[in-house]
Task: structure prediction
Amino acid sequence: MIHLIWSSINLIILLYFFYLIICFITKGKKFFNTQSKIFSIILIIVGIFKIISTSISDKSMNQIVFIYERDSICNVETKSLKLEDHLTLDIEMFATFCRDQNNIKAIDSYSEISGFVTGFDWKYKSAEIYKNNTSGKIEFNVNGLLKWNIFGITIYNQSKTFKGSFN
Result:
């Protein structure tokens, strides 16, 4: 529920930013004679700066590659796991494996955040994926960083660790 509130706050700030821009274009400087003049000017400056900086920055791929070359005789399989499930957002991991006879090797892993994610950014940091010889299951240990943003500015970094296993 907190994720929904956070995303709603970000959406309201974004809509208010567009309202300020439209009013500035239609009314000019007269619009800024209100009580919230300083806040409105700061929001417009920060918003324009974030739009420019976002358009020139590149997003990370959130992919970790374990094996660069794979054998041509192995069967490639992809497994999708939901690491975290909330009302409005999910964090998922996709792992690609090379399976030959009795051996399993992780090729790569990719993670993403999906849903109503306004105000959140997911950074996939590390992953350890291996086969447990005693149980025969594939176990994983995944680390990442969930960034809580307001209007594109990171307010809080939440470290996330996920452990589990699958067949």
